[in-house]
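not sure who needs this but someone in the group chat was asking about UTP20 protein from Formicarius rufipectus so here u go. i didnt clean anything up, its just raw.
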Amino acid sequence: IFKFLGAISVDLGKDRIKPYLPTILTPLYRELNSNYAEQDPTLKNLSQEIIDLLKKLVGLETFSLAFSSVQKQANQKRAMRKKQRALQTVANPDIAARRKLKRHKNKAETRKRKIESLRPLHKAKRHRSHALKDLAMVE
């Protein structure tokens, strides 16, 4: 898709690409700023190359304006999601409690896996799965 965006940008040219610049920059910006574990470095390099190509194509000033608007929009979305999560914690405490329990359980499992990888002879105690008990809410 990134190669397609780059090809379309070159094909449209300087004047006709300007209205579509924020739309093209959105996935490129998302890929550059993502920080998930299994990130593909070739994808990040490709997005950087296409951003450089767009910068040369439309000029620094036009590119900067479009890029800053994409950045601003992404930050607003992130802030809105964070606010929604905080509001949901207050509005639905049972859902928030369930989410918190799940997060703590996953954290403990991760810690046990890490201990096992660092010390192979040491076996961490594993939580026995009781399907119905895990689904029940803790009071």
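also The longest helix spans residues 60-91. if thats useful
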